[in-house]
Amino acid sequence: MPVTVEDLERAIRAAFPVSHLDIEDQSSGCGSSYAILLVSEAFEGKTTLARHRLINQALKQEISQLHAFSQKSFTPAQYAAHQAKSG
Questions:
Q1: d(C-alpha 56, C-alpha 49), whole Å
Q2: pLDDT band at 28 (very low <50, low <70, confident <90, very high)
Q3: β-strand 68-74 against 33-40: which pairing, if any?
Q4: Which backbone phi and psi does 36 adopt, to 5 degrees?
Q5: For a surface tag, which of 26, 36, 55, 76 has the fewest beta carbons within 10 Å of its beta carbon?
Q6: How many other CB atoms are found less than 10 A from the CB of residue 65?
Q7: Angle between helices 5-15 and 48-58 (to 10 degrees)
């Protein structure tokens, strides 16, 4: 059974306090490739690698069923700065 956007969202929201979440199915609907953008205060003081490890651990079951998974993670302050730059 393919992983759905709802599956990913449920797992992410259960693992992190979410300020903002974008999930994009990049596989034309077949559920084998996703990209996420996650903003959470849980990332304060953590390196990008540490954030990715946290996300990978939280989504271990879902990621094991995917062909491709990419992620971007920000703290709320970093995301606000990112939004201001991309305006």
A1: 10
A2: confident
A3: parallel
A4: -125, 150
A5: 26
A6: 13
A7: 120
pLDDT at 37 over 80: yes
- Give backbone dihedrals phi and psi of 64, rounded to 5 degrees, phi first: -65, -20
Mean residue pLDDT of the chain comes to: 95
And the tokens for 64? Answer: 């094991």
3-class secondary-structure state, position 45: coil
pLDDT at 2: 85
Taking the C-alpha atoms of residue 68 and residue 15, their distance in angstroms, rounded to an integer, is 21
- Say what the pTM is: 0.93
CB-side neighbour CA atoms (13 Å) of 44: 7
> CA-to-CA distance for 50 and 54, rounded, in angstroms?
6
Give the CA radius of gyration of the chain.
Answer: 13
